[in-house]
Amino acid sequence: MKQLRLGLSMFRMGYHVAAWRHPGNQPDGSMDLAYFRGITQAAEAAKFDLVFMADELAIRGADNPAGSRCRSSHVAELEPITLLSALAPLTERIGLVSTGSTTYSEPFNLARQVLSLDHMSGGRAGWNVVTSWGKEDALNFGHMDTPDYDTRYDRASEFVDVVRGLWNSFDADAFIRDQKSGIFYDPDKMHELNHQGQFFSVRGPLHMARSPQGEPVIFFAGDSEAGRAVAARAADVVFTAKQDLADAQAFYASIKDRLPGLGRDDEDLLIMPGLMPIVGRTKAEAQAKYDALQALIDPRVGLASLYDRLGDLSDYDLDGPVPEPKDPAFRSRAEGMYKLAQREGYTIRQLYTTLAAGRGHRMVIGTGEEIADEMQLWLETRAADGFNIIPTHLPDALNDFTELVLPDLQNRGLFRTEYEGATLRENLGLPVKSLR
Ligand SMILES: Cc1cc2nc3c(=O)[nH]c(=O)nc-3n(C[C@H](O)[C@H](O)[C@H](O)COP(=O)(O)O)c2cc1C
């Protein structure tokens, strides 16, 4: 029986905009290694495939409606590759996946950092490829604004190729390290990259042995046409935000249908949408948990949560319809939000209240059985190969999921009770990948 793959996103102490205000949260957790250690070890005890860190390169929302920014916890966060490196020796089997921007870093630096994490964790690292879209990110890197869409994706595509090329600098058996003969490595098994492209010129090689898992696992987040093309070619896992089954199935098919033409098999690439479960012993208990979180949303923060996708809507009637997005920097998410508002007939106020929880990811409020049903349905109808669990707030939402949903999934034979392998790639059931 096909198994579900599960990630846990640890970003921002939970994805709900009011997560940090929940009495069960540790409000200074986002700067505290011990907080992340507790969450990661709990996720490992539950046999999650991986913990996942999203990332941003600035405090976003400078132009957000007045009074919203000082109410946000997003202004204090640890750098994710550093954080995951600290978590590596504190864990044994769980995968450690960090977001890394292709817009504002150099492939050599990123290839080196991720491969270091991979070696230090015994082959448990992954890199989530993103193209940074925030204007505030641009301002921290000497640019006035985000590069246009095509430029960002052209650069991302070349960036991924260079990183993979660097990860393949040495064959798996290149290092002889023969103390007697004095030969450290076999020169025939070292490869200079000599890359000259539109954005990068990188000679290589990367001075690091090959990954214990061939190459670290590549996640890809971004689902416009340009994004899908890069994902189908180079990614191992696609992380996406899909609100309903039909959209998720269409997305799944659109990626998987490209694989045979690229010489890849269906199982070579996994699709993992985000899923925010709000789970209770009864539906009423789950609903009460949701309502308690919603009551913590300050209206200024709610409106600000739409700002960077749909623009400043403060001049519009909050109880009127949602306007169509105009040339947004984050097209897929803006369109998803707009479609949701149209389908459900949401006003601006209703939209931000709904999205304040899942931020564009699917949210399900229910019992463990209901959530397990939904996950099974998505798995069996080619909408998902697994999910990146997007908790409302941490650690409570992880504990609820582990206690109330996972045993049901395990009873159905849909989720492991023990890790199968030592590396992230093995646990995800992905083939060892290399360019040679
Ligand atoms: C599920 C998902 C997660 C993302 N996570 C991040 C992130 O952590 N940091 C970031 O800067 N961008 C993130 N992005 C933004 C993408 O890299 C990209 O800029 C954006 O999706 C616009 O491209 P698209 O229209 O192809 O989706 C994410 C996108 C998606 C769909």
Automatic annotation (TrEMBL):
The keyword Flavoprotein applies. Gene3D superfamilies: Luciferase-like domain. It comes from the Bacteria. Belongs to the NtaA/SnaA/DszA monooxygenase family. This is LLM class flavin-dependent oxidoreductase. It comes from Antarcticimicrobium sediminis. FMN binds at D55, T99, Y153, S224. Pfam families: Bac_luciferase. Residues 17-378 form the Luciferase-like domain. Keywords: Flavoprotein, FMN, Monooxygenase, Oxidoreductase. One of its GO terms (molecular function) is oxidoreductase activity, acting on paired donors, with incorporation or reduction of molecular oxygen.
